[in-house]
Amino acid sequence: MKEKIQQLRDELNQHNYNYYVLDTPTISDYEFDQKLKELQALEQAHPEFYDENSPTVRVGGSITKNFPTVVHEYRMYSLDNSYSKEDIEEWEQRIIKTLGTDDISFTCELKYDGASIDLLYEDGKLKQATTRGDGIQGDDITANVRTIGSVPLQLRGDYPQRFYIRGEIVMPKKAFERLNQERVAAGEDPFMNPRNTASGSLKLQDTAEVAKRGLDCLLYFLVGDTGIATQFESLEKAREWGFKVPNYSRLCHSTQEVMDFINEWDTKRHTLPYETDGVVIKVNNVAQQQELGYTSKSPRWAMAYKYKAEQVDTQLESISYQVGRTGAITPVANLKPVLLAGTIVKRASLHNADQIEKLDIHIGDWVYVEKGGEIIPKIVGVNLDKREPDAVPVSYITHCPECDTELVRNEGEAQHYCPNTYHCPPQITGKIQHFISRKAMDIEGLGEETVELLFRSGVIENYADLYEITVEKLLPLERMAKKSAENIVKGIEKSKEVPFERVLFALGIRYVGETVAKKLARHYKNITALENTTVEQLVEVDEIGNQIATSVVNFFQEEYNKELINRLKEYGLQFELSAEATAGQTDTLKGKTFVVSGVFSLYSRDELKALIEQHGGKVGSSISSKTDYVIAGDKMGPSKREKAESLGVKIIDEVAFQSLIIS
Ligand code: AMP
Ligand code: ZN
């Protein structure tokens, strides 16, 4: 069995490498998932072969309560910055003076814009991952970093027995966009930029959430004495050992060649899948590096060249206000078209009222527009020299541009909302579009535009109406062929099989995204239980906070929603967990309440909780007289232990728990 497990781990490591590092997968995602599931099952059945670097850790599932501080064995320096050819020539002169030779070559690399990371490998396995922190000490974020697909868990080739390697954890532009789409779909504010989102993601407590963020890790520096003579070779070596080391670095023999590299990449960098904000120039020869040494802040042998963020000024013609599915208002600047980073820009995002006020924008102003990681560029300032004396400041709208309802703004929130949830046209169509979307009901044949058309023609006013659609009702519509009409009806019919958790997501409850919907579905098992729950009970569910709980309860109290859901029930949608999802359910733990605390080795905390629920038990969040068992792992807090003891609650470990459910 051990061999089988090892073989699957090797195989999955190889596929991970092919996919994330080489970007050339050799099997389908489906096949990969099957193998991963097989390994997960074997590991669960054979906890004695547990390995912290098994490819199964990539999916996450453990919770990190706090990130211990780690003192860096080798300090993490920052870099000096340069902005021009003259800066670089000056730097070169200083180096020539110190080294007493002008025989110096440079490695030029792109400067990846993310969060720096320090990885420790021992015997080819990832041991520790630490943030830069203040350069002297950082935070141990190993569990989170293990979920990043391009971070090798097992090295290949002739790697040193023990070494540190440094790099940057970035959020690729695509992953950033996708994440923001999901957030907006769940009624949350979008994140501002990929860099902050990458570093924020690394500090999430739930590794499963980190795993879903689509982070990438690009390496650029081997630390300490590795016996490798040059920076350029060390990049090649690291690549051989299985690290993702972008292949764009170039060995240059003069500052002119360095400048050529810089100029070439000034525009080309925008085509890369991740953000870069400059070039890092490093003295190639390691012996020379050592001779040059460090200042108190940075290596003397390296220099960052920072690109100016691409910026232009253009005139702001007007502001339009978009109304989203949840009623959130997004102001958008309409600009006089202008060329920026290779594309014509006509619109820019302004985020919210505060942003407009902060920038003190007047209509007709010449505004500076910048292109960051986002697809839509943003306005970063106003060119006051060009302001007309009679320009009027923007006054934010007070009423919905679509339905004229007075807008509201909840305390502590940045966005204004149109509260006319059920009768404001873009909110109606937005909700239906969300309902039919791929991750929700995934209705084939129906797209966003068709939904608009159906709404405008009066065929539907809400998502329940979809199930009353017939081919006859569709045929009179503009450009509706018989075949497409039939497909739509078929697609709608088929959606009745979509499982409960996705139906729950499709309902469009604010703050209930895909993950929360899954959690709620698993916990409550059917819609009736959820309809009758209270805020107090909801916050007892793992990771459901007050905001989500209140939103759920309000949703189900609303008459309008009750009616829609009753209709959906009559149409035969899935409103309870399927037999498949409830397979393996028993009553073994019925009536028993468990609290899970500490860190475990056989199971992740989520797995333990799922097992408790699967066997009919309840998961409590804090120890009280109602608790029957505390399952204690490593690092359970002493105060919790005391409390359990004083209340006479049984404390068991994961093995004892296992025997409870197996017997
Ligand atoms: P700064 O944060 O502006 O002082 O720049 C220094 C940071 O640039 C380092 O801490 C690294 O995280 C980051 N960086 C990105 N790409 C590279 C690279 N190719 N070589 C060295 N540092 C890099
Ligand atoms: Zn409205």
From TrEMBL:
Highest taxon of the source? Bacteria
HAMAP family referenced in this protein's UniProt entry, alphabetically: DNA_ligase_A (MF_01588)
Role according to the record = DNA ligase that catalyzes the formation of phosphodiester linkages between 5'-phosphoryl and 3'-hydroxyl groups in double-stranded DNA using NAD as a coenzyme and as the energy source for the reaction. It is essential for DNA replication and repair of damaged DNA.
What's a Pfam family in this record? HHH_2
CDD domains hit by this protein: LIGANc
Q: Specify the protein name.
A: DNA ligase
Q: Which UniProt keywords apply?
A: DNA damage, DNA repair, DNA replication, Ligase, Magnesium, Manganese, Metal-binding, NAD, Zinc
Listed binding positions for NAD(+) are D29, Y30, E31, F32, D33, S78, L79, E109, R132, E168, K282, K306
> Which PROSITE patterns would you find in this protein's record?
BRCT, DNA_LIGASE_N2
> Cross-referenced InterPro entries, in alphabetical order?
BRCT_dom (IPR001357), BRCT_dom_sf (IPR036420), DisA/LigA_HHH (IPR041663), DNA_ligase (IPR001679), DNA_ligase_CS (IPR033136), DNAligase_adenylation (IPR013839), DNAligase_N (IPR013840), Hlx-hairpin-Hlx_DNA-bd_motif (IPR003583)
Q: Gene name, please?
A: ligA
User: Would the keyword Cell membrane turn up in this protein's UniProt record?
Assistant: no
The family annotation for this protein states: Belongs to the NAD-dependent DNA ligase family. LigA subfamily.
What is the native source organism of this protein? Capnocytophaga bilenii
Ranges for domain BRCT come to 584-663
Q: Which GO terms describe its molecular function?
A: DNA ligase (NAD+) activity
Q: Which residues form the active site?
A: K111
Catalytic activity annotated for this protein?
NAD(+) + (deoxyribonucleotide)n-3'-hydroxyl + 5'-phospho-(deoxyribonucleotide)m = (deoxyribonucleotide)n+m + AMP + beta-nicotinamide D-nucleotide
